[in-house]
Amino acid sequence: MPLTGTFERAVDDKQRTALPKALRDGLTTSDSSSLYAAPGNDRCIALYSRSAFEDLAERLTQLSSARSEVRNYLRMFYSQAESVDVDKQGRIRLPARLVQFAGLGSQVVIVGVRDHAEIWDQSRWEELISKHSDDFDDLAAAAMPF
Description:
This protein has 146 residues and is an alpha+beta fold. Helix content is 39%, strand content 27%. It has six helices and eight strands. It is globular and about 40 Å long. The two termini are 22 Å apart.
């Protein structure tokens, strides 16, 4: 089932935030309460289930490591990605390097994006929505040319 929705959350002084139940249920399994946090596009934090992260890793192996931008992307992505556990209160501790990468403050927005979730600094998310809301039809046409 695709991950969807927009949820406002706080980040506490230990860099923890609560995952919305709808997203938590889509990212974790009864066998594992851990997931992967990684640098996301446009300077957000991407959250993947174990299986989605493995699928992404498989797709990334198809990239040509002969190109320097591919090698540098893989270095940046994998060196900052890490497994994080969901605690009994449904919170995750965000890795400090990813908090810095995404420029997160104390208020964040967590959004479902089909096979993963993204954590955005609230003000940056509001800017993105404001910038692209009027372009929704054009974005839809570009994303779905069928």
